[in-house]
Amino acid sequence: MKHPVRIGLIGLGSIAESTHIVHLTSSAHAELTAVVDVDADRAKAISKTYEVKHYFQKVEDMLEKVELDAVMICTPNSTHIPIAMKCAEKGIHVFMEKPIGTDLKEVETYLQLAKERNVLTMVGMTHRFRRDARILKSYADKGTFGNLYYAKAKLFRRRGTPKGWFTDQTLAGGGAMMDIGVHVLDLAWWLMGRPEVQSITGKTVAALGNYETKYTSGWESSNRQLNKGNLFDVEDFGAAWIRFKNGVVLSLEIAWALNGEEDEGIEIKLFGDRGGAALSPLSIFTEEDGLLSQHHPIFEKNEPFKDEIEHFIECVRTGSPPLIHGEEGYEVLKLLQGIYDSSLQDKEIRYE
């Protein structure tokens, strides 16, 4: 592809303005050609502020009037696949923020269409692009830890429930698990080598709900049109015990809000018969010359969002496969759905 990758950005919420727009407009190999938002005034304002040629209120209008190579979808979870379907029909490559969608059958239909139309699909799992995660992955891939048998992944917030469409089941497809749990689960699963699931036991709870804790603040969606009534019908805590067919077990714990200590970031621990690791901070545990050893690789931090977006642009330009493609997004959604199903049915979910 000789010309810059022409990209349409769909959904102009806080994350899109603070990251996607910033890195798209500064990229040497991409052009932010059009923006779309259900709030026409916001679309117009964003277009003017960042000197984007076209703005629209409807995806259909953009696809009809503007020639694009790719789109980036930053809308509520349940809308990802319907929008992606329209773009894939036109042969336009698709990047969508996590999760890939909220309905497995719907995702299957989309992936088949994308395959038929030769459309590249990438899911925004930003933490895979963290430098410490990439270093840890390199250790795992070269067998430093031997055979993994257990992993722990966790992210607790004390009072970090987002406001807006995130707490509306119809729009979000779930609560804390769908919002931040998807990142933790994907990162752990990827570091473990993406094993095939055998069974899931999960529990999700709406424990604190719409709390009114004094002197605390939280993140709020910039789109005031969605979930105006502040509906809260999703979970704010979730935990799961996931067995994989290769014998590895993953313990997962996620909370938007709880009465306990808050984590500074995603915590992941890997345990193998030859070594282990922790993230974060990045620590490697091994035995050297019969002695227990712990070391901390030294590295400069990167900008994961920037590297993720540049990676997508490069994949579109060269036709190379993305680090997190649609099929992997589907597998992560399958794990999430298993957690919800187990909690709802109050039993273990087994897979053939």
Which ranges are low-confidence, i.e. pLDDT below 50, for 5 or more consecutive residues? none
**Based on helices, strands and strand pairing, what is the structural class?**
alpha/beta
**Based on DSSP secondary structure assignment, what is the total number of beta strands?**
15
Radius of gyration: 21 Å
Number of discrete helical segments? 10
Round the mean pLDDT to the nearest integer and report it: 96
Biggest sheet record: 9 strands, mixed
The percent range for strand residues is 15-25%
Shape: globular
Task: Name the strands of the widest sheet in spatial order.
Answer: 14-13-12-11-7-10-9-8-15
Sequence of secondary-structure elements:
EHEHEHEHEHEHEHHEEEEEEEHHE
Distance between the termini: 43 Å
Helix share, percent? 25-40%
